[in-house]
Write the structure tokens for this entry.
Amino acid sequence: MSFDPKHWSNSHEGVCEKHGSWQVTLPASVTRVPTCPKCRDEEREARAAEERRVEEEQERLEHIKRLVRLVRAPPRFANAEFDGFGDAGAAQSRIATIVRNYANAVANQTGGGRWLVLVGPPGTGKTHLGIAAALAVAREQRRALYLRLPDLLAALRASYAKGATESEAEILDDIAKNFLVVVDEVMDGLSDHGQRVLFELIDNRYARNLPLIIATNCTRLEFEAVIGDRAADRVAEQASYLSCNWTSYRRRRRETS
Ligand SMILES: Nc1ncnc2c1ncn2[C@@H]1O[C@H](COP(=O)(O)OP(=O)(O)OP(=O)(O)O)[C@@H](O)[C@H]1O
Ligand SMILES: [Mg+2]
Ligand SMILES: [Zn+2]
């Protein structure tokens, strides 16, 4: 038998609406209907691009999940949202909007390193709002952290003990890595150690122009006295005070249930 390419390949041709006339030579074993090779390349590229897009979206969602975990919201507040916040009246609604807009600005880096201090009596939703802000920022793929000052001070005291696994510097560095920090439960009767730690934290945010939310049961004047002059001076420059002054959500819930 003589060598005849026709036995192992076939030539096809046609006209594509998009690419004009085309010609392909395919092995005889290929049974699919031949089409424009440029269209085939384009389809293959589109499929690959779609696969990449799906993969990137999965990575984005995984990244967000990780960042949401890193907020370290306590279980009760794990899903704290702004939606539905404001049923205690106009003042509450106004403050919820301010905090929501603040979180958006932080996420978009248009906040210019401004701070918020949520002041007010127990049960008014300060923790809820602070965490809702941190979670909103995390969902926009920026690191945010919620921490209770008493917990931080306890962790630091533990770090001074012999054989501690983490040093003070490591704990503070970990906090400093966050784009937004929410410091809760800044309370009356702060020790010298507490004041020093809080000052470090505040001055770190200040020097780096980074956002900060503080929540406290103190009034503004009490708060300034509690944190000390040097911290209060920086807060006075950077922060807006939001007075959460409505009926305790906890009590209202008890009364209506
Ligand atoms: N508008 C609201 N909508 C839904 N839940 C709310 C609202 N306000 C507060 N809560 C809920 O009420 C409870 C009390 O709120 P939160 O703990 O945030 O108050 P707080 O101001 O931080 O109080 P404290 O000063 O005692 O720490 C929480 O369970 C919170 O999720
Ligand atoms: Mg609270
Ligand atoms: Zn084509």
Observations:
- The longest helix spans residues 37-70.
- Residues 126-127, 184, 215 surround magnesium ion (ligand 2) (CB under 6 Å).
- The CA atoms of residues 92 and 239 lie 19 Å apart.
